[in-house]
User: What shape does this take?
Amino acid sequence: MDVKGRCLLTGLPKVVTVSSTEMMDAFEEPVERIMEAIHSVLERTPPELVADISTNGIVMTGGGSLVSGFDKLVTARTGIHTVIADDAISCVALGTGKSLDSLNAMQDGTMNLSRRKQMN
Assistant: This one.
């Protein structure tokens, strides 16, 4: 796979060919940290919400969710069905904007952000 970026030595654009093994090695540590964070959040989540998550699944957002097979890894490691959100990159910005617009309601706990139907 060709990866485009900027050479740190020259500051100029550069294309480097990276093998799938090198890519997997580069992703290993960050993926493990993400998996640990998911497990940590699930452990601290109240039982009734964990039941909802188990029923409705996990929806991944952001650019990282687009890494091939990441959703399947999360499913395998958590046992919870995981999908990638439609327009995963934009929904992060849209959700942040919605949260900022409704900050007071969110702090009071009076806002329901759920909009997804049950996943099958």
Notes: The longest strand covers residues 2-6. Residues 41 and 95 are 19 Å apart (CA to CA). The chain has five helices and four strands.
